[in-house]
Write a structure and sequence with these properties.
The protein has 304 residues and is an alpha/beta fold. It folds into 2 domains: 7-130 and 288-302, Rossmann fold; 133-286, Rossmann fold (3-Layer(aba) Sandwich). It is built from 13 helices and 9 strands. The strands form 2 sheets. It has a 5-stranded parallel beta sheet. Helix 2 links the parallel strand 1 and strand 2.
Length: 304
């Protein structure tokens, strides 16, 4: 594993090894001990989009492992490929740092950085994929249910980058994935077909959220209006009526079900405040696991 661009690119064994390493390091750090395997190493953190969890979790993870992180905000580097070609940036950074983490608008930017970089590249979010978030979600499910095989994740809402990454993760790790999305916002058929080629019958798309959650172990949602879609906000709010995770939808799911959201949550839109604060919510466990999974990822990729 040279880089981490998409869950689709990883084998099931690689993903399980990363989860095992993440949970091991989580226990180590919670016990007060440290693993300084990245002493002397530096991570360049390239941001085209603003961030809370991504920036803080990656920076803390590098520091936890004894390394350093350089935060490069949009006004520092501009849109990658506009001020300077991605292939030039990748080769320059490869002379300076031990790894590149990028949070970009276009997935092609991540691919181009990795094509030309001689150091590991980590996708911290693109329009097509959000693999670090999905793996933190999967780790959270494993911790709460004790296993992954046979678990069903019901995603309610926009068929976006998070939904795609979760579909691939479920396919790779013997889970079931169902998405309930309104017309025009479905997860693309290619993703569903690919997931079902990996694990036949594991992924499906339906219209009715109530049907999606009836036997689900995890209820998952994300914002209806992602960064870059602000002009569509009013239309999207209208289109997503009936796709909110609220008390009624949660009551239709098994009592064992857990609620996840990758944050930031717009309470009153895709999810209600009462569900966010309910005993079934593990939203902040997920947020914490971003740190633990990314710490493992950095150790795996850079601590060689």
């Amino acid at each position: 594993m040279k880089s981490f661009l998409s869950i689709q690119d990883c084998t099931s064994q690689e993903l399980l090894e990363l989860l095992d390493l993440s949970m091991g390091l989580k226990k180590l750090y919670q016990s007060g001990k440290r693993d300084l395997c990245l002493t002397g190493k530096t991570l360049a953190m390239l941001f085209e989009k603003t961030s809370l969890r991504t920036r803080v979790s990656f920076q803390v993870a590098m520091q936890d492992l004894g390394g350093n992180a350089i935060y490069l905000k949009p006004e520092d580097i501009g849109i990658i490929g506009q001020r300077e070609p991605a292939k030039d940036m990748a080769r320059v950074f490869s002379r300076y740092v031990s790894g590149i983490m990028a949070r970009t608008f276009k997935h092609e930017t991540i691919i181009e950085l990795d094509r030309w970089a001689t150091v590991p590249v980590i996708n911290a979010l693109s329009d097509w994929s959000h693999p670090c978030q999905a793996m933190a979600d999967i780790q959270t499910a494993m911790e709460h249910f004790g296993q992954l095989k046979g678990l069903k994740l019901a995603y309610i809402g926009d068929g976006n980058n998070v939904a795609r990454s979760l579909a691939f993760a479920c396919a790779k790790l013997d889970m079931q994935f169902v998405i309930a999305a309104p017309a025009g916002y479905e997860l693309d058929q290619e993703t569903l077909d690919t997931a079902n080629q990996i694990s036949p019958g594991c992924a499906m798309q339906i219209r009715n959220p109530m049907d999606a959650v009836r036997d689900a172990d995890v209820l998952y949602t994300d914002t209806w209006v992602s960064m870059g879609q602000e002009a569509e906000k009013e239309q999207r709010i209208r289109d997503f009526q009936g796709y909110q995770i609220n008390d009624a939808l949660l009551a239709a799911a098994p009592k064992r079900a857990k609620v996840m959201h990758c944050l930031p949550a717009y309470r009153g839109y895709e999810i209600t405040d009462s569900v966010c604060e309910s005993a079934q919510s593990v939203i902040f466990d997920e947020a914490e696991n971003r740190l633990h999974f990314q710490r493992a990822l950095l150790k795996k990729l850079i601590g060689k």
